[in-house]
Amino acid sequence: MAREGNLEAPTRHSLDWNDAGFWDETRLEAELERVFEICHGCRRCVSLCNAFPTLFDLIDNASTMEVDGVAKSDYAKVVEHCYLCDLCYQTKCPYVPPHEWNVDFPHLMLRAKAVHFKKHGVPLKARILSSTTTVGRLASIPVVAEVVNAVNASGVGRTMLDKALGVHPEAVIPEYHSRTARKRLRHAKAEGTAMPAGRTLGKAAIFATCYCDVSLPQVVEDLHAVLTHNDIPTRMVMQEVCCGMPKLELGDLDSVRACKERNIPVLAALAREGFDLLAPIPSCVLMFKQELPLMFPDDADVLLVKQRFFDPFEYLMQRQQAGLLRTDFKNTLGTIAWQVACHQRVQNIGPKTREVLALIPGTTITTIERCSGHDGTYGVKRATYPIARKIARPVENRVKQADAAHFTSDCPMAGAHIAHGLSGTLHAEHPVSLLRLAYGI
């Protein structure tokens, strides 16, 4: 068979996790071997993450120097380094569907994670780290938040966190706020007249996300301010839990379903009321746009939410193209170094953040299309933190070379991880916050 790439637009098959064959370990191993053989012959993705160097080292050190010389038990070493960024599928692999080889590396890794989780589970510390809604609610209780932040900022506290949860002592961990975004904006009402534009209906509901709600409430406030400044009636989603992405990365698909069953009815009801849905973290947007629809392709409410969910800057550019985005900027921003978050990049919406920020007079954007290496818990766990730092280093070098006044990433976790390597020269700012700064509101 000739190794010819595919020139058609990629398509994504549903995750057939309700089929018994999905969970069959023998069939899974056969599919892993098949895909690893294709990757071995291509190697285009070697620079993306540590999954591919791990695979190729296993092959190159095997007695046959082929996949058949790699022990099946070592396949797990590749799987553990895939954090489902999706970049290989969306930007590198020439063999994705509709190519006949039908390679979907991230979802194969997800299948392997799910099979392992179902058979062996994961350590308690991994379950705790991925239970972001529960941890956030407990840590944001008044007084408790101050205690947690103080402990996390101390050497003794970080040693305890390392021993208890395997969080690397040098990894950036978020602060917690008792005055959460949902508390700050609980009285926000979607007042005014909705003006449809492009795919947007003209009134918005913000999904705060479990991370921004308790750790970066100002970002949610900034998003609300930018939307209302542009005459978009805006409110908060009434109630929400984690989108499910941290559980997806564990392969805990039943917990993903539990999150979906709590979020989707609320979001679908808002969609039926004519609201567009936005979230300030790309991973959460991707979860509702892609992962849940692929897991639940026959759920009408999931598909409705998919249609109405937007990345904030995708949303604003829809308004701009219809002449409805305000450009009454009061402040220039100079040079911005913008790291393109992986889970935003793979939404196939184009560089909308850059396009919006470029509307600000006296502002230039240096675009950095490299992964931060953070990706959920991967960038904080003791076992993988050093690798995450290595992946981030080229991005940090690009930021330094840009000599920028501001550094930004749409993913707050990625931004903080990269800024940690900049030795205090720049701190990470969310692009929504920069936009509000430019508006002077």
UniProtKB/TrEMBL annotation:
The membrane-spanning stretches of this chain are: none
The UniProt entry, under InterPro entries, shows: Cys_rich_dom
User: Keyword Iron: yes or no?
Assistant: yes
- Output the Gene Ontology terms for molecular function: 4 iron, 4 sulfur cluster binding; metal ion binding; oxidoreductase activity
Q: Does the keyword Phosphoprotein apply?
A: no
Q: Which domain of life is it from?
A: Bacteria
Q: Where is the Cysteine-rich domain?
A: 205-289
Alphabetically sorted, this entry's keywords are:
4Fe-4S, Iron, Iron-sulfur, Metal-binding, Repeat
Q: Which Pfam families match?
A: CCG
Which PANTHER family did the record assign? Answer: ANAEROBIC GLYCEROL-3-PHOSPHATE DEHYDROGENASE SUBUNIT C, GLYCOLATE OXIDASE IRON-SULFUR SUBUNIT
Would you tell me the protein name for this molecule? Fe-S oxidoreductase
